[in-house]
Amino acid sequence: MAAVGIAAVAIGSMAGSASAQSLLDKIKSGETIRIGFSNQPPWAYPGENNEPLGFVNAMALDILKKLGTTKVESIVTEWGALIPGMQAGRFDIITGGMYIIPERCRNVLFSDPILKLNDVLIVPKGNPKGLHSYDDVRDKGATFVTGAGYTAVTAAKEVGIPDDKLMQVADDVAIAQAVKVGRADAGSGNYLSMKRVIEKEDSLELADPFTAPRKPSYSALAFPLTEQATVDAFKTAMKDYLGSDEMMASVEKYGYDKTMLPDGTATAALCQE
To answer: Residue 239 pLDDT more than 90?
Structure first.
């Protein structure tokens, strides 16, 4: 019995050591790295065999390779479940291209920015209500739709769009569908995703001109709060990678161009805004 007890303690100790292993250690030891993202072309989405596609996944895979591993597992979930999923230990890195905002900085560590981008407003063809800003949506009593967990939710509330005029849905396709069928008068998401979603929709268009409610947004890879050493390693690897020919060769096919490169704005500053 004593021997069994000692063995149990040893096994428990080993299990505790394994669970405490850092992500950087997992990378160095060649363990499979689990990347979490939602189905949001062209940012990140699964291929036919669940392979990670999209420009954020392409960048993440390039950087992981520089750090010594090509072994990854894709875990696809809804956007609003990404941070809770990481906190629950379901995956190691969020590669969905999350915007860096203070609320998220309290729950995850972000890498340096990998992209700078504005949101857009989608409206029915001809923009019948003349919506060119979130202020217009508020002032004209229009119904507004965006994704659950999107920064547009906070922006809409900040300008005073009331809760009974604010719809939250699962993803970009659902945003476009809500506007298309008349459940909402306008919807918002990031330029790359929304342009892609509506490009074959004759009944929808981007509001032009559109005055964004905030300054450009910056997206990044996200890590657990305990992984500062891993974030530092990614920062070093990204220094010569961002904007390089290697990076552009990986991301151009997804619509990422050099106008979207970050401008030197620091993650720490974005977390404090």
So the answer is: yes
Burial class (CB in 10 A: 0-12, 13-18, 19+), 215: exposed
Mean pLDDT confidence for 94-120: 96
How many H helices and E strands in the chain? Answer: 12, 13
| Secondary structure class of 16 (helix, strand, coil) | helix
- Residue 12 sits in the same domain as residue 55: yes
Residue 56 has a pLDDT of 98
- Could you tell me the pTM of the whole model? 0.77
In this prediction, residue 267 carries a pLDDT of 97
Contacts for 56 with CB less than 8 Å, ≥ 6 apart: 37, 43, 44, 95, 96, 97, 114, 115, 219, 221
Q: How far apart are CA 22 and CA 92, in angstroms?
A: 10
* Residue 87 structural domain: 2-116+217-272
Give the strand pairing for 115-117 and 119-124: unpaired
Nearest to 141 by CA among 114, 165, 120: 165
Identify whether residues 76 and 151 lie together within a single domain: no
CB burial of residue 44 (10 Å; 0-12, 13-18, 19+)? buried
Distance CA 254, CA 257 (A): 9
